[in-house]
Amino acid sequence: MQKLKFEPAFKDEPRKNPIKIDEKNLKNGLLGLVVALVEIIQETLKRQAIKRMENGRLTEEEIERLGLALMELEQSLEKIKKENHLEEIVNPIRSQLDSIVDETINKFMAVTVQQE
Predict the structure, then answer these.
(1) pLDDT in tens, 59-78
(2) Which of 50, 56, 88, 93 has CB 3.0 to 4.6 Å from 36, enough for a Cys bridge?
(3) CA 20 to CA 17: how far, in whole Å?
(4) Confidence of residue 7 (pLDDT cuts 50, 70, 90)
(5) In the chain, what are the domain boundaries?
(6) What is the pLDDT of residue 65?
(7) d(CA 77, CA 80)
(8) Of the candidates 28, 99, 37, which has an alpha carbon nearest to the alpha carbon of residue 73?
(9) How far apart are CA 86 and CA 78, in angstroms?
(10) How far is CA 72 from CA 42, 43, 64, 67, 78, in A?
(11) What is the largest CA-CA distance in the chain?
C-alpha cells in the first residue's frame, strides 16, 4: 500500500502572514475575518443561483425561496457588522483575502502553463 505524502504546493517560498488582524482587539479581528469569509460564501451562492436561474434549473418557488434566504443572510451580516462596529475591519480583510486568492490562482496557472 502506498503512503500519501502531503506537501505545500509552494514549499520553496517563505511563509508570511498575509491576513492582518488587529491583535489589540482580537475578538473584533476574528469576527471580522469570519464575516468576510461568510460574505465571500454569500457572493458565491448568489453567482450559483444566477447560473441556475439562467439555465432554467430552478422553479419559480425555488427562486423566490433562494432570493429571500440570500436577502436575509445579507441583512444579518450587515446587522452583525453594524452592531459590532466591523465595517472598517471587514473591508481590508476582504481585500487581503482577494489578494491571496489572486496570488494562488496565478501560481497555479503558472504551474499549469509550465506543465503543458
Answers:
(1) 999 999 999 999 999 999 99
(2) 93
(3) 7
(4) very low
(5) 25-95
(6) 93
(7) 5
(8) 37
(9) 9
(10) 11, 13, 12, 9, 10
(11) 54
Instruction: Return the ∠ at Cα 54 (arms to 52 and 58), rounded to 5°.
Output: 45
| 41 sits in which H/E element | helix 26-54
Residue with cell 446587522: 79
pLDDT band at 3 (very low <50, low <70, confident <90, very high): very low
| DSSP, res 25 | G
pLDDT for the residue numbered 4: 38
Q: Which of 12-16, 30-34, 65-69 has the lowest mean pLDDT?
A: 12-16
Are residues 39 and 94 in contact, defined by beta-carbon separation less than 8 angstroms?
A: yes
**Other CB atoms within 10 Å distance of the CB of residue 86:** 22
Q: Name the pTM for this structure.
A: 0.66
CA angle 26, 81, 25 (to 5 degrees): 15
Q: Which amino acid is at 46?
A: K
Q: Which residues contact 66 (CB under 8 A, 6 or more apart)?
A: 49, 58
